[in-house]
Task: structure prediction
Amino acid sequence: MKGMHHPLGAIETRIRVAAGARAIALVAVSKLQPASAVRELACLGQRRFGENYVQEALHKQAELADLDIEWHLIGPLQSNKCGDAARHFDWVQSVDRAKLVPLLARERPIERAPLNVLIQVNIGDETSKSGCAPAAVSTLATLISAEPRLCLRGLMAIPAPWPDPDQRRADFARMQQLFEEIRARYPTADTLSMGMSDDFELAIREGATMVRIGSALFGSRTARPHSV
Ligand SMILES: *Cc1c(COP(=O)(O)O)cnc(C)c1O
Result:
């Protein structure tokens, strides 16, 4: 049963309205939130959580080991963190260069299912260093799909923070087009991860199948309304 005062229920309703008949996966972004806030949301039925920083996530995972949580790494990935990422997450959404692919594959424990991987695309944000160029997606997809310990699930993007919704919409639409090309080539690619607290309804209308929502669920990351 959903808590009356937790925003989760209202967010789920807004997702359903924007999605119509389509199913949308909600990743609750818990970076800089205490483990207690994750536990509270997990007890309301939320199962997917996204973390940006590997070390912070490992601490929370240890505290929450009794819960059945699907962990998504959504922050920039350094090559020296690939081992921890491959061992302790179910999904890595931020694969944006070829070098990371064999490192993740090599470190994925054999007793676990293949690691779910999204290619992070830099869709027109010149200020961001994360994400590969749209023209590099095809090569990365070929590399990932050749690794039996990895499963190519699709694409992820953080569009530029355009104040103009039409420009954001154009970025989302370009992602949707790239995603359709990948989906046509790889049957395992079923996920387009885009849309955050400020723009998830727009992202869903432009084809997102997964949204990543932090502040709208947890409150501001500095105020920490659910702190321990
Ligand atoms: C922080 C973060 C989010 C969530 O952002 P909100 O605006 O708080 O919803 C989503 N995706 C990524 C990659 C993030 O770093």
